[in-house]
Write a structure and sequence with these properties.
single chain, alpha+beta, Phosphorylase Kinase, domain 1, 4 domains, six-stranded mixed sheet, 18 helices, 33 strands, rod-shaped, binds 2-acetamido-2-deoxy-beta-D-glucopyranose, kinase, ATP-binding
Length: about 700
């Protein structure tokens, strides 16, 4: 059922009710008009007292002095029932002749006349009952034409009578002519009921509502016990057609707003009806109040059912996605890890819808080949970043789940924390802590920003990033290769604390495997050439990418730039050749150079160059890189501290924070144990090489 349609109707109804109140009543019953006589209800246009009926033809008398219960009369005819759909039922008398063995006892004819109403030709039948009976009706039509109809009924034995059907044996019927407004009925006998008066002393003739009269053999004997029979009249307004009537709006009787006009089917005039879906009296100005109770129930009921069905469908879909996205596997994993470490939470679709104001455009904080990132506010007021990926490779579900699990366990202050995910949507949604201050790329390459980025800050960012990657490579229960280290994946918070993000391309390396063959994936400018050629993924690929990042921090140049001459487009080669040619200080960024820490710059540059070695095995490990950078930082902060002291300090730090698998033997400080932060996402694993200019 069209819910919308019904709502529109409901609203139209309300409006019509309001409108109706504003229109002055004309040709309407006065207030206080009686609407019934006894228990017969009398709807307008009919009425029983002055000012209560539309015109004289609808005037009825209610006779409560002579009759109890009171009776209603139209002219001399008793009214049994009135309905606003243009019909009324009246009492119809019958003509009769009776005999005994001696001959005729009595006979009477009957007549009927109500010039304002038409005897329905479709719902009445002229009927004669008797076994020696001739019934005749003569009368006038509404246009003055005369008519005469009749039928003859015989039978010589009661047994020959067809009990229950009016078929000529004891009973006969014929149709009424169209448009008849009156009749006189007479009944006659051929043989004075000779030989049959025992079982059928009388003959009868009458006009009766077809559906009402069921002939039975009992009628041959006892029919006269009835007072009368019902007959149906059609009534209509005036003697004009709808079209003409509408022209004279003051007398047009279809007053209700939601009413329609119909020409009378068998005579002059028209009648009114409430429009489809409405009920009431179309002749009353604020009636046709539409939707009946049952219809209302239907509306409410069906919309309820519609809602339930929709909801159920929605639930099914959610469940399907949840399973498709490995939700069950995820739950199993969760229960296995229960209690061990703070782990990602499963968010519901409603949580995230609310958090993002139904994925409002204004909440979009990032868009790319991977999908869309929204800023959201959870119910507990935590600000989060919600990543809605574009693609979902069904084959990688298990891996996806595994990565979510692993990454959600990473609790490193320099890795963006994965708070949880939602698996009820077609594509899983990932929820991260929200990092306020944008990407490192923005801070390096944005004119106004770069000058704010001091050498000390750059060194801190480099050391923190290296520490985080080293931690991923060695500290997590299963080594993780990030695969997409670049300045746009390093985020900074208000305090310029580094947060490594986007583990969409990351791979978990089983401990017994040093390398992994994969589809080459990464970003041009940062992509390890060895990996690119061999498809052999090792931790050293991240080292290379980090080398590019270091060069970026040192020079302020983009990893890949078409502004530079062709041979220098790739920052890695440009950096390497410049150092080779002793031109390092010409390509460094002004800010660090102006700070005058030239020795340090040189050391970091050397480190970057080692990271950028073409052969992976010649590159340092991330642990070594991190250690070296951390050492430089300590010296920067406390130039008087010697290296030994630094080692002791880091050992102390490590004692507090290193994961329990004993992998680290006190060499690098990957985590100073301050804050809880962590990371991860991992789902956009398709595509081969993203053609990114490496910003
Ligand atoms: C009409 O009223 C009489 C008494 O006033 C009652 O006995 C009768 O059942 C009523 N008929 C209907 C159809 O309500
Ligand atoms: C009621 O009916 C009787 C008998 O038909 C008649 O005499 C009387 O005037 C009628 N009363 C009214 C108020 O019509
Ligand atoms: C017939 O009816 C009349 C009048 O009631 C009566 O006088 C006569 O005896 C009846 N005849 C028979 C045969 O019953
Ligand atoms: C038929 O109608 C006429 C005039 O309307 C009347 O004089 C006559 O008595 C009526 N006949 C019967 C049987 O009612
Ligand atoms: C005719 O039908 C009526 C009920 O419809 C029944 O009471 C009556 O006895 C029947 N007559 C005969 C002769 O069967
Ligand atoms: C019927 O009865 C009438 C008088 O009651 C008589 O004049 C007539 O001849 C009778 N007809 C027959 C066919 O018996
Ligand atoms: C009435 O019955 C008698 C005797 O059976 C028969 O002679 C006569 O014709 C019958 N009359 C009619 C009109 O059937
Ligand atoms: C006549 O018969 C029909 C069906 O056989 C029944 O529904 C209806 O109530 C009967 N009418 C009367 C007045 O008995
Ligand atoms: C229609 O009715 C009006 C008033 O009721 C009357 O004056 C007019 O003659 C009627 N027209 C026809 C064609 O019956
Ligand atoms: C980044 O942090 C700095 C220092 O807290 C602050 O001044 C600046 O407004 C922040 N930028 C953004 C984009 O949040
Ligand atoms: C930044 O540092 C201040 C002071 O140490 C601290 O209150 C605040 O929470 C830090 N902000 C973030 C995002 O870590
Ligand atoms: C850590 O140290 C222990 C003993 O000091 C040594 O047996 C172990 O091999 C070391 N592990 C690593 C990964 O260096």
């Amino acid at each position: 059922m069209a819910l919308r349609e019904m709502l529109v109707q409901l609203i139209t109804l309300l409006i019509s009710i309001l409108l109706a109140r504003a229109i002055a009543a004309t040709s309407q019953p006065e207030p206080g008009c009686p609407t019934s006589c006894g228990n017969l209800s009398i709807p307008f246009p009919f009425g029983t007292s002055d000012g209560c009926y539309l015109d004289d033809s609808f005037f009825l008398t209610c006779n409560d002095t002579q009759y109890n219960p009171p009776r209603t009369f139209a002219g001399d005819e008793q009214v049994l029932d009135i309905s606003v759909d243009g019909h009324m039922r009246v009492a119809s008398n019958f003509a009769q002749d009776c005999f005994n063995k001696s001959g005729l006892l009595f006979e009477k004819s009957t007549n009927f006349s109500l010039s304002n109403f038409v005897i329905s030709s479709t719902r009445n039948k002229f009927t004669a009952v008797g076994c020696d009976t001739i019934g005749v009706a003569v009368g006038e039509g509404s246009e003055g034409q005369n008519y005469a109809i009749g039928c003859i009924s015989y039978c010589n034995r009661i047994e020959s009578v067809d009990n229950g059907s009016c078929s000529g044996f004891g009973c006969c019927q014929t149709s009424m002519p169209q448009g008849a407004t009156d009749f006189t009925v007479v009944v006659g006998s051929t043989w004075n009921h000779t030989n049959i008066s025992d079982f059928n002393p009388c003959g009868y003739a009458f006009v009766v509502e077809e559906d009402y009269f069921n002939f039975s053999t009992l009628d041959l004997k006892d029919f006269q016990n009835r007072e009368n029979v019902p007959m149906v009249l059609d009534w209509a307004i005036g003697n004009e057609t709808c079209e003409d009537a509408k022209k004279n709006s003051s007398s047009y009787a279809c007053r209700a707003v939601n009413s329609d006009c119909y020409n009378s089917p068998n005579g002059l005039g028209y009648f009114c009806n409430c429009s489809r879906g409405y009920q009431g009296n179309p002749y009353l100005i604020d009636d046709c109040q539409g939707l009946s109770i049952s219809l209302l129930v239907l509306v409410v009921g069906s919309s309820w059912i519609y809602w339930i069905v929709k909801k159920r469908k929605h639930m099914k879909l959610k469940e399907k996605f949840f399973q498709q996205n490995g939700g069950l596997m995820f739950q199993q994993q969760l229960s296995r890890h229960e209690g061990s470490i703070e782990i990602a939470k499963i968010f519901t679709i409603e949580d995230l819808k609310k958090a993002t104001n139904n994925y409002d455009e204004s909440r979009v904080i990032g868009r790319g080949g991977f999908g869309t990132v929204y800023k959201g506010v959870l119910l507990d007021n935590r600000v989060v970043a919600i990543k809605k990926s574009k693609i979902s490779d069904q084959n990688q579900i298990e891996q996806f789940i595994n990565e979510v699990i692993v990454l959600s366990q990473i609790n490193h202050r320099n890795v963006v924390k994965l708070l949880g995910c939602c698996l009820e949507t077609e594509v899983p949604l990932l929820v991260y802590e929200f990092i306020t201050n944008g990407t490192l790329s923005y801070h390096i390459h944005n004119e106004g920003r770069a000058t704010l980025l001091s050498w000390e800050m750059r060194l801190k960012i480099a050391a923190e990033t290296a520490g985080a990657i080293a931690y991923l490579h060695s500290a997590a229960s299963m080594p993780i290769i990030h695969r997409d280290i670049k300045s746009t994946n390093i985020l900074l918070d208000d305090n310029y604390t580094t947060k490594v993000a986007d583990f969409g391309a990351s791979k978990l390396i089983p401990v017994d495997q040093a390398q992994l063959t994969t589809l080459v994936q990464g970003t041009f400018g940062y992509l390890d050439p060895e990996y690119f050629h061999s498809s052999q993924l090792t931790e050293k690929s991240d080292v290379y990418s980090f080398g590019v990042l270091l060069a970026e921090l040192l020079t302020g140049e983009k990893a890949l730039s078409f502004v530079r001459p062709e041979k220098d487009r790739n920052l890695a080669t440009y950096f390497d050749s410049s150092m080779e040619e002793g031109r390092l200080f010409q390509i460094l960024d002004h800010r660090p150079v102006n700070e005058g820490k030239l020795e340090q710059l040189k050391e970091v540059a050397e480190l970057a160059r080692r990271c950028l070695r073409v052969k992976g095995e010649e590159r340092p490990t991330m642990k070594e890189v991190a250690m070296e950078l951390e050492g430089l930082r300590v010296m920067e902060k406390h130039p008087w501290v010697n290296v030994n002291l630094y080692l002791e300090e880091t050992e102390l730090l490590l004692a507090k924070t290193v994961p329990s698998d004993g992998y680290n033997n006190g060499t690098i400080s990957v985590d100073n144990g301050c804050s809880s932060s962590t990371g991860y996402d991992s789902m956009k694993n398709q595509g081969i090489v993203s053609l990114n200019d490496g910003r």
